[in-house]
Amino acid sequence: MARRIGVLALQGGFAPHKQALEELGLASSEVRTAAELAEVDGLVLPGGESTTQLRLLGRHGLDAALDAFVRSGRPVLCTCAGLILAAQKVSSPTQRSFGWLDVGVTRNAWGRQVDSFIARDDRERLQLVFIRAPRITEVGPQVEVLATYRGEPVLVRQGNTYGATFHPELTPDRSTHQAVFSGQGLPA
Ligand code: GLN
User: Which of 57, 92, 107 to mutate to test the pocket of ligand 1 (most atoms within 8 A of CB)?
Assistant: First the structure.
């Protein structure tokens, strides 16, 4: 079981993730440097603006350390913009990404009138908060789909790297964080 979980805190919604981890009794810390990353056993990549996050990762010299951390197999939860960084392929518009998850994502893909909305997944286990969310449009063979909305994947896993198009930190339900960092499956 992971002991201290880092939350990448360069930009975006990192504070509610820290809160969610603390509610689960997990120690957490904000990560802005490679030295801080070396102190943690798991990591959250929060939502926000993925282009800005990419630029800041480069500026803080974090690209290589972050890539090595995720590829080491430690548990990592990538939400929304974090998922866009993790994807193999990004469109609308295209941008650089790390490719930890063999998925294709389309940014801001739910249409202008419904930029942000709340729904339940198809099995009604999770409350889904979408904020200018990406859509997962392609899923590779090594990727497991853990939750769908209207038949489309919204929570996926490849090894210990998880990607969510929604914001599990913004609801009281902690089952997503728990599944990633406490090794418990999602409720049936
Ligand atoms: N639209 C954002 C992006 O493309 C992601 C939205 C979010 O993280 N809430 O980076």
Answer: 107
